[in-house]
Amino acid sequence: MEPGKKYPRIKVVPPGPRAREIIGIDEKLLLQSFTRWYPLVIERASGFLVEDVDGNVYIDMNSGLAVCNVGHRHPKVLAAIKRQLDRFLHYSITDFYYAEVLELARKLFEITPGSFEKKAFFCNSGAEAVEAAIKIARGHFEGKRPYILAFAGSFHGRTMGALSLTSSKPVQRKGFAPLLPCVEHVPYPYCYRCPFKQTFPDCDYWCIDVIREWVFEKYLPPSEVCAIVFEPIAGEGGYVVPPPDFFPRLERLAREYEILLIDDEVQAGMGRTGRWFAIEHWNVAPDVIAIAKGVASGLPLGVAVGRGEVMDLPRGSHASTFGGNPVSCAAACAVIDAMREEGLLENAAKVGERALKRLRELEQEVDLIGDVRGVGLMIGVELVKDRKTKEPAVRELERVLLEAFRRGVLFVGAGLSTVRIAPPLCITEEAMDAALDILGDVLRECSRGD
Ligand SMILES: Cc1ncc(COP(=O)(O)O)c(C=O)c1O
Question: Which of 293, 328, 378 to mutate to test the pocket of ligand 1 (most atoms within 8 A of CB)?
Answer without folding.
Answer: 293
